[in-house]
Amino acid sequence: MIERTSENDVENRNVIPVTLDANFFFERAVRSLDRFQYDKALKNFRKAVEYEPENPVNHCNMAGILSEMGKYEASNDILTHVLEEIDPSMTECHFYMANNYANMESFEEAERSLVTYLQEDANGEFIAESEELMELLQYELNRPAPLVRIRSREGVVEHDRARSLLEEGKFPQAVALLEEIVQNIPDFLAAHNNLALAYFYMGRFAKAKECLGEVLAQDPGNLHALCNMAIFLQYAGDREQLDGLVRMLEATVPFHQEHVFKMATTMGILGKHKTAYGHFRRLLKDEEVGGDASLYHYCAAAASNSGFVSEAVRCWQLAAKLDPESVVPKFFLSQLQLAQAEGRPLPPVSYNYQLPFQEQLKQWKNNMDSFSEEVRNNPLLRASFFWALRYGDSSTKLQVTEALRWIGDDEMSEVLKGISEQEPLQETALLGLQRLIGGAPEESTIQRAVQEPGVPGHKGLPEWKEDWQRVIDHTAAVMERRYDAVLKKDAELLWKQFISRLYPDVPLFRHTEGWCAALEYLTAKLHSHPLTYREAAQRYGVSVSMVSRYARRIHQVCGFPQDGAAADILPPFTENI
Q1: Which residues have CB under 8 Å from 14's CB, separation 6+?
Q2: Which 3 state secondary structure label does DSSP give 535?
Q3: Were 272 and a residue from 135, 267, 430, 530 both cysteine, which residue would form a disulfide, CB within 3.0 to 4.6 Å?
Q4: What is the C-alpha separation between 92 and 344, in angstroms, rounded?
Q5: Which PANTHER family match (predicted)?
Q6: Angle of helix 466-479 relative to helix 512-526, nearest 10 degrees?
Q7: Enclosing H/E stretch for 75
């Protein structure tokens, strides 16, 4: 470092130090460039190189000036020196050299340098410019370049394919492809995020959290990972971690369109409908997506769930105008008008741009061929079914498994088999899955576990008491001639779910007949079989009030939706790149 002062400055004690270092000459070079004084700029960049000869950026700046001055060979000499002597990882030097060669009309050398850049550079900073230069070289050489791979785009095609598989509900295939991608490209964070989603869809919760942990270790502010983690924590019931994360997300205002959409859908899934509504409103102001009918439905759902009735009506009316062939906006508008006429609020609205599950079931029951075709051709519906089987409440699971019995689809059976083999499997879905993949309901995994001596009657429970089993046995005996094996098994599964959720604080069941009556009543209702409290009470010789009280208790513990409708099973959206 050198400081220059004049004698007069010393005498007058007005000392102004001038620090002569690489940065000083760099700034002077930039000022010269702004004035198009290339000779002065080159001179100052040379001085910067003298002060910091090991800094490759200074050399590249000097090479850039030489290129601007038309001294392409001299520029390439410097760039070659950088690659060979200073920093071989400066792969962008190959791109600069390719441009210099092209300007010299040395197209073979330009192609060689450009191919080297594309195959070695991991960041892809000049990928768009490289495509333009590649087109020029192909035209001049009258042949395609011998390009084997583009390193910065590795895994992109495979990742797009994996996203499609996820959105089609083909989870095992998506997992296999995504696992291969992240193994080969560990820093491909979008692939990690989507792999976490795929694990989650299949019930592999520990693997899903582990995958997101790897993303957040590399990028603590990764919005997709944070949103996915919030959804995972909600389904795991981890309120302590979830509350802090949700507060942070609610205070976040994303900028990019995809991030706004991710945040909006996440808030909707988490039940933060007012926050979701705000983000959907922002998206509707974007001209690129503002004409999407489904987006207006999302905004209407968020508005309705937030109590903003007039805004919900406006959004559904616009959705109907944009998509006149869809029955979805018209259905919700009619439901909203009916609710207003009856002076009651509209039940929670699903964000899925399709009719509610119960409404679709009514239509499909009258036309099973139409249902089979819809499931095969609607990836979102397939994904929603698998999502419901894994994470829905007991009512939703029973409805989905009942619906899926109507179709015989090899691909769906394969996926369901994969779901049934994952841990932890919620038992309410197990019977339906076994029916769909060819298992015998009379000899299910749960049934065998109960029959084997010394084996707990429910996964995760260290014991299975006699009075718990007595309810199952007595209910099955009374239901014997009235229902098929499916309903009897579902009653058993419902009771085991009830016990497992109460455990370890399971009370002593003194009124076995009352619990049996409540169990049969709820099972019949879940399968849409007509049965009143009075009829159930008469069958088991107990009072109507006892059946009602015990049924409400099972209802509260197992969490059935009040109206029997399927829960909102909108899955998290996959991440693009």
Answers
A1: none
A2: helix
A3: 267
A4: 65
A5: LIPOPOLYSACCHARIDE ASSEMBLY PROTEIN B, TPR REPEAT-CONTAINING PROTEIN PA4667
A6: 60
A7: helix 72-81
The two three-digit tokens of residue 122, written as one number: 């991991």
What burial letters (b/e) apply to 439-458, b meaning 16+ CB within 10 Å?
bebeebebbeebeeeeeebb
405 and 543 both lie in a single domain: yes
CB 113 within 8 A of CB 145: no
Q: How far is CA 247 from CA 191, 252, 461, in A?
A: 26, 9, 35
pLDDT in tens, 35-91: 777 788 888 888 887 888 888 888 888 888 898 889 999 999 999 999 998 889 889
Q: How far apart are CA 259 and CA 268, in angstroms?
A: 14
Cβ–Cβ contacts within 10 Å for residue 553, how many?
Answer: 15
CA distance 567 to 81: 64
SS3 state at 174: helix
Instruction: Give 300's contacts (C-beta < 8 A, 6+ positions apart).
Output: 311, 312, 313, 314, 315, 316, 319, 329, 332, 349
More confident site: 565 or 275 = 275
* Domain that residue 512 falls in: 361-558
d(CA 261, CA 282): 9
Close Cβ partners of 570 (under 8 Å, ≥ 6 residues apart)? 265, 268, 269, 350, 351, 352, 384
- Which two tokens mark 131? 């495509």
What are the helix and strand counts (H, E) for the chain? 31, 0
How far apart CA 175 and CA 409 sit, in angstroms, is: 21
For position 164, which CATH number holds? 1.25.40.10
- Amino acid 565: pLDDT: 32
Sole residue written with tokens 């058993």: 492
Amino acid at residue number 149: R
Cis peptide before 424 (omega within 30 of 0): yes
Q: Are the CB atoms for 437 and 416 separated by under 8 Å?
A: yes
> Whole-angstrom Cα distance, residue 64 to residue 96?
8
Residue of higher predicted confidence among 320 and 38: 320
Domain tally for the chain? 3
